[in-house]
Structures
1.
Amino acid sequence: AEVSSADFATAVERWSARVNMLDAARDVRVMGKLGCRLIVRGGSEWASALDDLGDERPLGVWVRGAGSLKVMASKAIALVGARAPSDYGVSVARSLGFELARDGVAVVSGGAYGIDSAAHEGAMRGASGPATVAFMAGGVDSLYPKGNVDLLRAVADAGLIVSECPPGATAMRHRFLARNRLIAALSGATVVVQAGFRSGAINTAHRAAELGRQVGAVPGRVTDPQSSGCHRLLRDGAAVVVTSTEEVKELVGGLDAVREGDSYAAQAELRITDDLDERELRVFA
């Protein structure tokens, strides 16, 4: 579209005003008072798993909490799903979160209502040390959603709150989708506990598959729309069935562990990203 010189000049003036307001030193100082810190690429706490995003990897991330991003990423599994799940979905997410954390696996999710909250809650009950990571779609200084502030503060005490957004950034729709790629990248595998046919959780699962990560899905009733997204992933061969914590942990071991079970063989062969090298995976993504 054509832009008039006057409109262009106005836009430049606004951008310049925003740039002049930036003060990195101030942000670090203020965030430090909140117990937050900035982790940059190549730093001692940087999680190399994020580098698998290639050109989409963040320049750095803000973290809030007692855990170490690098250490927690070394053995991490994402549990994601619907914001309005059934009691069945909440029970499964909480149980998986508890047992994974008990066994030393960091539980990664998005801090949202529903499955995310249940996964975080279960993880915090299952381990005494850093147990869970919550990725925000806004700044780590402004916890969202507001109804989960107490839970997210507990997550910070028992793990990490992470975001690539600058301090003061508000949660916006496009930031949720961008956030999903970080959840998928940091985790060795992503499990969709319960989700509708189209949802953010399905987007996270697709991002994980694009990165060559393992994807699992918990089956539900065939008539339950809240599990239709999981069934879609299974039908398309984009995920394997997981019904227990042991089966979830098998995903972290890679495809070889999955292929040992005859019941998983057919779905494992349907993963079109299995034989792609790093460059081909980036093109596919």
2.
Amino acid sequence: RRFFQKADNVLGYFLSNKLFEYETNRIQQKGCFDIVVGFQEGITTRFCSFFKGVSIVAWVQCDYSIYLKGIKHPYKVEQQVYNTFDKIVCVSKCTSDVMKKVFHELADRITYVYNTLDLSLINNLSTEPIFDDQFLKNDIFKIVSLGRINWVKRFDCIPQIVRKILDD
């Protein structure tokens, strides 16, 4: 992936697109698909955009106004990618609203479906005791953050949040 990112930047176009086109053709020759879903922004969505003759759906999980600030290729490329999709499904109304604002010309294709969470399981697990002696060793306030280490997840905001909690 890094090789293609560097090559794309040096050449000024997406060399990876040639690989994606080749691979999606190869995959489609091996099987018959009714629908292709890209479950991740970025390179996964770009890859899925090369499928032909099937319904293509993008699953968007991030705030695209923030996401666009962190990507190296221009907005126009993202717009071209999403133009190939039949539906763009966001994980919340808020995410959908942002996506519609960023890509207003695609608003009729953008909808939302809340992530499915087993809330009763989460609530039950939250009441179970923690059996970690190191974690419970002292009376210091602790924050545990779980998630993929990626700038989109905004873990960089945690120190500011903790500072605000302490100040308040």
3.
Amino acid sequence: MKRPFSVWKDVYLVGSAEISHPYDCCIYLIDAGELVLVDAGAGESNDRLIENIRSLGFAPEKLHSVIVTHAHIDHIGGLAYFQENYGVKTIAHNLDAEAIESGKGIGVEFYGVSYQPCRVDVKLSSEDSLKFSKYEIKVVHIPGHTIGSIAAYAEMGKRVLFGQDIHGPYYAAWGADPVKAASSLQKLLDLEADILCEGHFGIYQPAAEVRKYIEGYLSQLQAITRGK
């Protein structure tokens, strides 16, 4: 199994299908002065994630919060563990908060795992800024994959974008809306990020590669919407 690694400055990849568990999304750690996770995995690799954080020289006891990009089990399954054991704050968009707190419509049936519902401490709206002692992390509402999907980005000498599941899938049965998703991907393009931290497929850089990656999925969505 691969090891966690530094992405850029204060950003680290601590979990993924290859680093922590096959069911996990990409899980990022930001040293924003306070330790911030982006997503929490499917809940099957909590001990491994803690080991990975320690291996990078960080104390999991200093974890402050988890930014939840959207309410699918592979991104939220570990939330209750981090809340109960490390007292982290869960931050999510208010439109996905009900799913996180109830466990309904989060896709557990596709993974065959259990889910422990947990509270959302900070419920975001369309545009928000999360201020930490070292960085300000800006949040953008990007509905389409779920109704409350968000992306986050920060200026760290380069603009680093945590773009969640840009690749989709965009299935209506899973609560997706391809029309809204296309608009959301255009919003991400307009951010002109230098580094993209994607929800499952890792890291893309420089800016030209970020644009190419997002444009590829935007073209697919536009073809789907034209065919309706």
4.
Amino acid sequence: VLFRSGGAFTGVANDASTGGFKPSCMSDIRWQHELYAGVSVIFPQVSVQTAANSNVNQNSPIATPIEFYYVYKYSERLSFGLGVNNQFGAKSSYPNNWEGRYIVQELSLKTYMFQPTVSFKFCDYLNVGGGFVYSTGTFDLQQSAPLQTNTTPYGEAHLTGSGNSMGYNFGVLSHLNDIVNIGICYRSKLKINLNNGTADFTDIPAGVQNLYPPTTGFTSSLTLPSVFCVGLSKLLCNRRLMLAFDFWRTFWSSYDTLKFTFTDNTTPAVISPRKYKDVNYFSLGGTYLLNEKFKARTGIFYDFSPIPDGFVSPELPDGNVFGWSLGGTYKPNSTFSFDLSFLNYDCTLTRSFTQGGFTATYHKIISVLDFGINIHFGKDYHFEDDKALKTLE
């Protein structure tokens, strides 16, 4: 849903995906039952240049985050929703013997969020909504250890863990008039505690195997940031054109330190400062109704990086980015509609990771194809409103 119009959607009530990001909009859903299912296909391209190596490419595979939303419109004013998505995630992979192997060889983070929500229309000008967020997450990190044996040039550390967390989201949607909406939403941070992680150490020299046993447990935590959004949308050109603008504030400062504490007391804890900062995101999008079956969309966005220089590692190289998107919706009948969109951004940055003694220039290109299907059935509340108006006339 983020990619359909450059990420500008906070002030827009369009389909069942509202339950995931802007629950107050569910009361403006047209049909009694609305379903949305989608998948994004992310094509990452990251190359790394250092003083020692002219180019190393990430081996990261294509990622396919999913989203599913259902909204039940109980009455004209009251709606219930359920959303499932994995909006936070990361995957990076490098050759095992590459220059930065002591920082990362492979990293994977997957999260899934389950969101039951409710929305209520107080009057024609004000909707409110909110709900709980239950999140699960898995973490997998593989890196080399600077410990040599007679047969291997370095050891290996492999850490895996999982955990869960609870949070909430809420929002407000105001219809300033029949063509202008303003939306506000907030999603709390989610701290996922990894209490039963497993650490495997291989190819460790005999002299330090008491510090790094073949297998031990560990505890850690991952904090997904809270997000505050404000969006404005306006209909133009006899309601055929809709423009939308979004401002997001993401509170990444909650991610201050990555720490692993091992069950085996002899294994030294790993403490890695991250010092992320709170950042802004701006987007502008437009949707144009070509005819009863087709809508065209486009958008642009600017996203600020939360990672200050000195803390940018090859695990997640990140910089400020400008991006764009194109897409559209095809509606063959009153029950189904299909979304297709494409997003792209390209950035080059030179940054350092002080703790790892690593400085590099990163060239990062991200391309995303987004597919979605909407299914709506049951009572048509807009049709019922039209009948009521005709009766009054």
